[in-house]
């Protein structure tokens, strides 16, 4: 129903398209990688990362509502349940905790510190994600439902048939120096990211399977990071191209093209709840927003037929004419938002457009 394309400001077809195409696309086609001189590196990158699992590191804190929501509603049902064989999921239970006078103090109080430590010990004791991911999901799901931690953990151990041996390992870890070391390790992992706080208490890092520190890190680092540091771009031989890319795209607006259809609930949700309040209202001076009102329509016997009927075709056409007539996004973005917002709550087009 909805497709958003984010494209760096300059057109891809230019006198020097190698410097105007984002690094993330440098290996997207043989033609481009050959033209720009990194065909060999792209080939080595594709070879090195072929069939490698994606590493997902999730920085969490046990009583953080956003972390619980992400784990329970997104990560477990949508990622783990569908792609367990294609990902390595690592949890780092620490979050916005701080060390004060040698003692860890957690954002949501001492209980959170205890549960963070428990989850670190749990992960260390069972080790495989096939065991610890369902357990962390189960515990966080129960905590989210306001079930006390001791009852939540006992319930999850029963439900997932955690052996007594594993339970003893976890308890031993909790009361030993190992539990402290695991939290110190979690603190270091979190602190290494140089974030003063974890955005919305949750940060997810998606890294291609191979380690970035390797004999040939140029071929194991994703292209999107090739221009992320001067050291790396110089080491890998595309310092000049990265410099030209940064120069060409400096202070350029980001083009956002939204493919939509007027009566699509998903499109309305995105425009009304996400695009307008979060992107346009905050970053209007940094983006160019283009709407393309057509969506899943098809041409049948020379006539456009829309997914949600003839009315949608009429509104798609109306919105296309509106955009063409006012031309500037300062006019058409608020208008499209207003119309879609009203259509979403049941107004007809004539009243929405008034």
TrEMBL record:
The organism's superkingdom is given as Eukaryota
Specify whether Secreted is a keyword of the entry.
yes
Coiled-coil stretches, from where to where? none
Q: Transmembrane stretches, by residue range?
A: none
Question: What InterPro entries does UniProt report for this protein, alphabetically?
Answer: Interferon-induced_GILT
| UniProt key word Signal | yes
One GO MF term: oxidoreductase activity, acting on a sulfur group of donors, disulfide as acceptor
Query: What keywords sit in the KW lines?
Result: Glycoprotein, Secreted, Signal
Which cellular component, as a GO term, is one annotated location? extracellular region
Location(s), subcellular? Secreted
Q: Where is the signal peptide?
A: 1-15
In terms of PANTHER family, this protein maps to:
GAMMA-INTERFERON INDUCIBLE LYSOSOMAL THIOL REDUCTASE GILT, GAMMA-INTERFERON-INDUCIBLE LYSOSOMAL THIOL REDUCTASE
Q: Which family does it belong to?
A: Belongs to the GILT family.
Protein name according to UniProt: Saposin A-type domain-containing protein
């Amino acid at each position: 129903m909805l497709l958003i394309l984010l494209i760096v400001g300059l057109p891809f077809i230019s006198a020097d398209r190698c410097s105007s195409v984002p690094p993330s696309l440098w290996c997207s086609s043989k033609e481009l990688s050959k033209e720009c001189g990194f065909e060999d590196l792209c080939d080595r990158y594709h070879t090195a990362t072929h069939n490698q699992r994606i590493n997902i590191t999730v920085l969490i804190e046990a009583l953080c509502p956003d972390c619980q929501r992400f784990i329970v509603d997104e990560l477990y049902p949508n990622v783990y349940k569908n792609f367990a064989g294609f990902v390595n999921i690592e949890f780092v239970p620490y979050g916005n905790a701080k060390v004060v006078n040698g003692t860890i103090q957690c954002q949501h109080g001492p209980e959170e510190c205890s549960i963070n430590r428990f989850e670190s010990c749990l992960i260390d004791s069972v080790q495989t994600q096939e065991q610890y991911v369902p357990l962390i999901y189960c515990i966080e799901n129960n905590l989210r439902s306001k079930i006390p931690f001791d009852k939540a953990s006992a319930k999850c151990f029963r439900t997932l048939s955690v052996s007594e041996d594993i339970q003893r390992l976890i308890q031993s870890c909790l009361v030993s120096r190992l539990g402290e070391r695991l939290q110190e390790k979690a603190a270091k992992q979190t602190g290494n990211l140089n974030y003063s706080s974890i955005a919305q208490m949750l940060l997810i890092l998606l890294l291609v399977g191979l380690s970035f520190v390797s004999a040939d890190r140029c071929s194991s680092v994703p292209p999107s990071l090739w221009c992320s540091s001067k050291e790396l771009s110089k080491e890998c031989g595309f310092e000049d191209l990265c410099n030209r890319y940064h120069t060409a795209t400096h202070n350029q607006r980001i083009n956002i093209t939204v493919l939509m259809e007027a009566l699509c609930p998903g499109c309305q949700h995105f425009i009304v709840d996400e695009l307008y309040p979060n992107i346009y209202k905050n970053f209007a001076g940094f983006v160019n927003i283009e709407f393309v009102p057509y969506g899943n329509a098809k041409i049948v016997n020379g006539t456009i037929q829309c997914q949600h009927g003839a009315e949608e075709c009429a509104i798609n056409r109306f919105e296309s004419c509106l955009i063409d007539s006012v031309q500037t996004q300062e006019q058409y973005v608020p208008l499209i938002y207003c119309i879609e917002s009203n259509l979403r709550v049941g107004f007809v087009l004539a009243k929405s457009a008034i």
